[in-house]
Amino acid sequence: MKLYEKLADAIEQLIRKGVYRPGDRVPSVRQASQQHRLSITTVVRAYLLLESRGMLESRPQSGYFVSFRAHAR
């Protein structure tokens, strides 16, 4: 499993456990990069994967937010 997949899975678990709720903003790409000691590219790939899974949605110039569809899953 690649690093971005591990990060995406970890964030998805936090969403499922209710740590991040629908509408919550997740850490910025830079913040997550520093927190997890991963490259910005790795974090972006993880967030894009979560977006494709319907867990996150991006809002231009605002960041990534937990999708309201994520709660329905």
Question: Briefly, what is this?
Answer:
With 73 residues, this protein is mainly α.
Task: Tell me what the structure shows.
It contains four helices and two strands. It is mainly α. It has a two-stranded antiparallel ribbon with strand order 1-2. A hairpin with a 3-residue loop joins β1 and β2. The N and C termini lie far apart (23 Å). The model has no long low-confidence stretch (mean pLDDT 94).
- Parts with pLDDT < 50 across at least 5 consecutive residues: none
Count of discrete alpha- or pi-helical segments spanning 4 or more residues: 4
Name the structural class. mainly alpha
Largest sheet: 2 strands, antiparallel
Indicate the overall shape.
globular
Please tell me how large the radius of gyration is.
11 Å
The first-to-last residue Cα distance is 23 Å
Strand order of the largest sheet: 1-2
Portion of residues in beta strands equals 5-15%
Q: Could you estimate the helical fraction of the residues in percent?
A: 40-55%
Mean pLDDT score: 94
- The count of DSSP E runs of length 2 or more, i.e. the number of strands, is 2
Q: How are helices and strands ordered from N to C?
A: HHHEEH
Features:
55% helix; globular; mainly alpha
Topology, pairings included?
Layout: H1 3-16, H2 29-36, H3 40-52, E1 56-59, E2 63-66, H4 68-72
Antiparallel strand pairs: 1-2
Helix pairs in contact: 1-3, 2-3
